[in-house]
Amino acid sequence: MPFRHGVGLFLRRLLQCKLAIPHPMRASSARFLMKLRVEHRTVYTYAQPVSSNTNELRLKPVSAHGQNCDSYEVQLNPPAKLSDYTDFYFNYVQFFEVAEAHQELSIASSSEVTTSSSLLPGDAETAPLSRLPECARLEQCYDFTQASTFVAISPEVWRLAVDASQGQNDVWQTAVGIMRFIHSGFSYEPLATHVHTHMFDVLEHRRGVCQDFVHVMLGMCRSLKIPARYVSGYLYNGPADKLTGAQASHAWCEVYVPDLGWRALDPTNNQQADERYIKVAVGRDYADVTPVKGHYRGTPDKRMRVEVSVTQL
User: Fold this and answer.
1) What are the distances in angstroms from CA 10 to CA 5, 66, 141, 229?
2) Alpha-carbon 136 to chain mean position
3) pLDDT band at 240 (very low <50, low <70, confident <90, very high)
4) Beta bridge pairs of residue 271
């Protein structure tokens, strides 16, 4: 790596970490810790043998901002050599290829994670919307103010966001208002959408799953110039089974608040992300953070099975 490029990358990461640190006077002083274990298994079964099966994995929980990945491993069957790199949004990515013919591919990851939370008060006043032009000039925010694969910005979405925020002038309270609007106005229906559903379709039918609700929230926030990014991960539900989308892969939103950095909101459950949430990757939308994606040579006829378990240690 050229010296200049290496220094630039280091400074970008240092700046990003510094700007994401919550303001000590604005966040809640209470801090809760959890130790969680995640088992994630994806199995592809092909109608006929396939080959040259190449995949990318975004499965390892992050170690940053109050979360630490204590252990992580991946088992592949058929066995293959794993390599890794860090993508444009600083997500940890692994990749591999199974060259020989096979009729089933199993990808099983296991993680142990220590999580914590530092939440803003529900009535917190942060920064006025008039400060949002500052964010547009920040490198870590620019991509998250634009339209993306599954997220659109339009006059109609802007109008909806203005109505949902009910005239709020505070960045944080505006985002919270949008979250509450989506939670109260959309129905959680697992079979209503698929992984390639665009936010316009979700807006039309007002139903979907966590991925869909996040895409809608991203579009509404970005239409008001609030930087907003997609977060993939897991949600621990515990034995009470009170949260929607738990014990499975989950998605939520992070909005950038001047002076406070990125703050997490979950429109599916109408709450801030706390110690029950395990963060894996961030991106403009689902297309940037897909847990497993790839291509192969052979029959298009295949079945996929995903099993996720999140338990407290």
Assistant:
1) 9, 21, 17, 22
2) 21
3) low
4) 266
CATH assignment, 120-289: 3.10.620.30
Architecture of domain 32-116+291-312: Sandwich (2.60)
* CA atoms of 32 and 227, how far apart (whole Å): 27
Q: Are 115 and 160 in contact (CB under 8 A)?
A: no
pLDDT of residue 241: 57
Pick the closest to residue 246 from 209, 206, 287, 284 (CA basis): 209
CB 30 within 8 A of CB 120: no
**Which residues neighbour 239 within 8 Å (Cβ) at sequence distance 6 or greater?**
none
**pTM reported for the whole predicted model:** 0.88
Cα dihedral across residues 243, 214, 15, 11: positive or negative: positive
* pLDDT at residue 118 in the model: 86
Delimit the CATH 3.10.620.30 region(s) of the chain. Answer: 120-289
Calculate the alpha carbon distances from 90 to 152, 183, 288, 290 in Å.
Answer: 24, 30, 11, 14
Instruction: Determine the average pLDDT of the residues in 145-170.
Output: 95
Query: CATH 2.60.40.2250 in the chain, residues?
Result: 32-116+291-312
